[in-house]
TrEMBL record:
Spans traversing the lipid bilayer: 54-73
GO terms (BP aspect): calcium import into the mitochondrion; mitochondrial calcium ion homeostasis
Complex formation: Component of the uniplex complex. Interacts (via the transmembrane region) with MCU (via the first transmembrane region); the interaction is direct.
Top-level taxon in the UniProt lineage: Eukaryota
Single GO molecular function: calcium channel activity
A family per Pfam: DDDD
Protein name: Essential MCU regulator, mitochondrial
Length: 97
């Protein structure tokens, strides 16, 4: 259902774009400029870009400190809210039943 809701505006936009290109051929340059990163002027496909050798390591170096910083900030905010009686968790005494 979500895909069908997204497909209609995309299809409509594609139809409008193709009409504009048919009306004015200079609009075709916009599409060619967008695709220039993939193909050479001759039409040959450009080679695959170089990959970063430690890509996964770099991701871990960014994600793990981010998680620790986020956890520290949320812990400090929770302590601040509890100290100032802005939010105090309810004590559930369900264990005594």
């Amino acid at each position: 259902m979500i895909v069908s809701r997204l497909a209609f505006p995309l299809n409509l936009g594609l139809r409008q774009f193709s009409r504009r290109v048919a009306e004015n051929p200079s609009n075709w340059k916009i599409l060619q400029r967008h695709m220039s990163g993939v193909y050479f002027r001759s039409g040959a496909i450009k080679p695959k870009p170089e990959e970063m050798p430690f890509g996964l390591f770099a991701i871990f170096c960014a994600v793990i400190p981010g998680l620790f910083v986020g956890a520290t900030i949320s812990k400090n905010v929770a302590n601040f809210l509890e100290e100032n009686d802005l939010f105090v968790p309810a004590d559930d005494d369900d264990d005594e039943d």
